[in-house]
Amino acid sequence: MKIYGDLLSVLYSKRDNEKIVLTQVQVQIKVPFDRLKSYINELIDLGLVHDEFSLELTEKGKSYLREYETVLDFMKRMGLSYRRRDMKTTDS
User: Fold this and answer.
1) Which end of the chain is more exposed for a tag (fewer CB within 10 A), N or C?
2) Confidence band for 37, pLDDT divided at 50, 70 and 90
3) What is the pTM of this model?
4) CA pair distance 64, 11, nearest whole angstrom
């Protein structure tokens, strides 16, 4: 959910005349390039993004983004964080 939300947020924040550079998107959401391409294809398959060339959000994608931001706002108000915590393993 977080990766889709972050990716859609980055794509939505780009202006109409601004070219989307995937390596910049990759750095912003902190995922390897091959996974980024996979996530983009998943967003297209889910109907959240029109195509891999424009990377424009569909109405469904914009709706997902609005709901995602509502969830993040709720979590923030409740004092919850949605960051992945690195699990440390202990040798016993």
Assistant:
1) C
2) very high
3) 0.78
4) 13
Residue 48 Rama label (left phi>0; alpha psi -120 to 50; beta): alpha
Helix-helix angle 59-77:2-13, to 10 degrees: 120
User: Which one of 1.10.10.10, 1.20.120.80, 3.40.50.2000, 3.40.50.720 gives the CATH number of domain 2-77?
Assistant: 1.10.10.10
Q: How many CA atoms lie within 13 A of 54 on its CB side?
A: 10
Q: Tokens representing 63?
A: 């709706």
- The structural domains of the chain, with segments of one domain joined by +, span 2-77
Mean pLDDT (the chain, rounded): 85
